[in-house]
Amino acid sequence: MRVFIAYGGSTGKQLAEQIRRWLPTLLPSADPYFAPWDTAKGSRWRDVIDAQLHESAAAILCLTGDTLRRPWILFEAGAVSQRSRLYPLLFEVSPDAICDGPLEQYHATEFAHDDLLRLLLDLQELPGMTKRREPVLRRAFERTWPRLRREVEGILARQTKDLAQQVLGGWWERITSPEQATALSFLQIESEPGGRKLRLVGTSYGRDGTPTAAWESRIAFVDTDRATMGYLWEGDKLTNTRGKRRGIGQITFIRSQTGRVDTGQGSFDDTDMRSSYLLKTFRLARATAAEAAVMTGASDARKAAQVKRQLAKMK
Asked: pTM above the 0.85 mark?
């Protein structure tokens, strides 16, 4: 039975290759198709992939945080779903992350022991798949799971390593939006325990240096190929109109000619969880060690003065 393995980006390609190698060892009647390895040289690869999509009885979409909305992934998903079963497979992505997009109608699988085993049990129930007795399949899964997990964890660790090492630390976020209460944020990009995940922690300020909001990321992921970071965030307003805020943001880091990352740009949406919605854009500049020391440990008065100086620099 043909199973189409879809992916996006270099990290997604490496993850998809692991699934391609692993799947037939547990389900021998599964015939994975994984471009580009299964596309003959000289062929019209778009025509070949389109044909394979229509011949596949199932598709596994290998999704990382940076590929959830990529057009090619969504095209493949749409083509398969017209006649086949679609299985989003999430790598270090919460199922909540696909709840507001085109893939929300599909029951996703997390790359985790129990969820992946359940996916195998479901796949072998499809027409054309030779069914193995459940105890036999479970034993085979237990034998192969440790190695597959090590390979995947190694790929995911390399995904964030290069970019993460360059963007850790303090940053200034100069905000442009219709709402004038907040003009600048000081944020810190930190590495979570284990070093594979990043988190953002920020405080926003008005033009007079008064704190207006405190926020942090709930999910953060990087796309090393594009030097971007996406994140889901939640926070609290600190002004007179207090209230919870949340949204989705993206940062595009800009590399200098020497390869350093000291600036960036991006946008985020901001909602009060009831009705108010704003899209805000920003410019990003790396904070010096001295500036970061003030913003993380000095008095409120010194922080306010530093904010005013930074606003003058980033007009």
From this structure: no
